[in-house]
Amino acid sequence: MADPPGCCSTCATCLLCPYSCQWITAKKEKRKGLRTTKYDCSWFLFLFCVFLFTLVWLYFAIIILNDFHNFNEFIFRQKKLWLDWSLVLLIATAVLISYSSVLLVLALCLQLCGQPLKLHWVHKVLLILTALVVAAAFAGLGIKWAEEWKSAWISLQATGPFLHIGAVGGMTLLAWPLASFIYRTRSTGLRVFVLLVYCAAMIALYLAPLGITSPCIMEENQLPPKPALVGHRGAPMLAPENTLMSLHKAVDCDVQVFETDVMVSADGVPFLMHDEELTRTTNVQAVFPERAALNSTAFNWTDLQQLDAGSWFLERRPFPTVQSLSPGDRQEAAEQRIPSLEQALEAAKHSNLSIMFDLRPENHSDYQNFVNATLGVILQSGIPLQQVLWLPDGFREDVKQQAPGVQHVYGRKRVKNDKEPVLHVNLPYQDMTSEEIRQYRRDNISVNLYVVNQPWLFSVLWCSGVSSVTTNACQVLKEMEHPIWLLPSSTYFMIWIVVDCVSFLIIIWAFVLMKKCSRRRRPAESETDVLLTKINSLMQE
Questions:
Q1: I need a labelling partner for 232 at 20 to 30 A (CA). Which of 34, 442, 528, 534 fits?
Q2: How far apart are the C-alpha atoms of 218 and 411, rounded to whole Å?
Q3: Same domain, 202 and 259
């Protein structure tokens, strides 16, 4: 294959060496008469598929960052090891996508320079390993974290229009090496097949917006009000979770509801704690090493008050925001203790803050006593009952009788045979579609979705019309005065048409240009073939 004009031998050699792992010049390769075989083409196709596979995993990795703190907590409960595994995920993904991207770029440049695509066996092995690693990651995601598939589907509502533009742009750039391949290859069947596949892919991409839907494609005047913020265990990015400091930080973030978890001590004192064990958020292993593995409800209130509920936050840094805390906040965090429900209700009452809580553990044999003890504290606290949002399903009818002013929040969707109307629901954000959220809004049902940390997700739910969201990142969502993007349908239609038309014109130009270049090379190639034939005849004589 002759090098096209503008592709020097040195450049071709620099591209060929890392791809083929053979440090010889491109001219020597040409003298050997090496050409890209069908076998080499199959490996290039495999490389392209691995690149796309890894690119899709990169997209998933970015999406699941919204929920990754749950994964960190899960690993800690299983292995008693705390690490921000999101960093490991992102670093590993970056290595895989960088490797496949570099190889793909080298292959495309080699094709443009007319060099053979002789992928070295080391790269072949590494590509197979890359595909296996990504496949294992997807399999693990599907087995252990299946709800993230729903998260990915929701994310397409936020990224769909931009993914479409990016995909059209990438496939348009692919027109140059594709045209070079089509005009160089001698197999008519292969040329027709590749061209048909490319055309089918481009047509599918050009028409893709017909299937793209997003709640953020709307007029500005149709945008619902900004969802209220519910602090997930307070403001856990700014203070130790389920502490009074966390509650006060949530108030500073304009949070309207403090979401927490309540347990009852062995001597009947309700207190704030999420985990059934105290090991993650206290120093129980240092104070009561022989009892560290016991359930939180096995400790009396005197024992619980001896525990440090803040130092772990500074030592383990569950969120990157911990390192940016001021010295004063660090000192305050280090002094935190486990608060009682009575203390939390008093703080909420003074801050005019609603409080929503789960009562754990639901399967405890004394759960009814837990409900009675919790209700007693609420009624004695003097907090307006409309500021109390009751989540537990157990003994809900008793709660309605003893404290009729409490607002009841249900962790399920409404059903037709509900005895009483459901006015408040609290669900994972994956469990409700945009259409359901709009319908609930029309029926005056308050919808709170959890846990929403990323601005892209908050934007989609905002456009859908959700009433409120539970978040770890109240300090981030507080600053959002508008969804990340909002496009009228007419504007999006114009962008779609312009992008497709520009892409089509560039592809036509690429094929025309590469055809002219191929015609310029043919006379030179013909003269070279005649000369080589004569030399061969003379040598045979």
A1: 442
A2: 30
A3: no
* pLDDT number for residue 7: 54
Task: Please write the tens of the pLDDT for every residue from 361-387.
Answer: 999 999 999 999 999 999 999 999 999
Identify whether residues 130 and 149 lie together within a single domain. yes
421 by Cβ neighbours in 10 Å (0-12 / 13-18 / 19+) ranks as: exposed
- 4: its two tokens: 């096209």
- Tell me, yes or no, whether 503 and 371 share the same domain: no
Record the tokens describing residue 516, joined without a space.
């002219």
Which tokens belong to 338?
A: 């486990």
Return the exposure string of 450-473: e unless at least 16 CB atoms fall within 10 Å of the residue's CB, then b: bbbbbbbbbbbbbbbbbbbbbbbb
DSSP state of 240: -
Tokens of 185: 């290859």
Give the residue carrying structure tokens 């040329």: 191
Residue 280 in any domain: the answer is: no
Q: What are 521's two structure tokens?
A: 């090379």
* 466 pLDDT above the threshold of 70: yes
Neighbouring-strand partners of residue 258:
231, 355
Please determine, for residue 214, whether its predicted confidence score (pLDDT) is greater than 60.
Answer: yes
Domain that holds residue 492: 15-214+488-519
Q: 19 with 54, same domain?
A: yes
Q: Are residues 108 and 234 in the same domain?
A: no
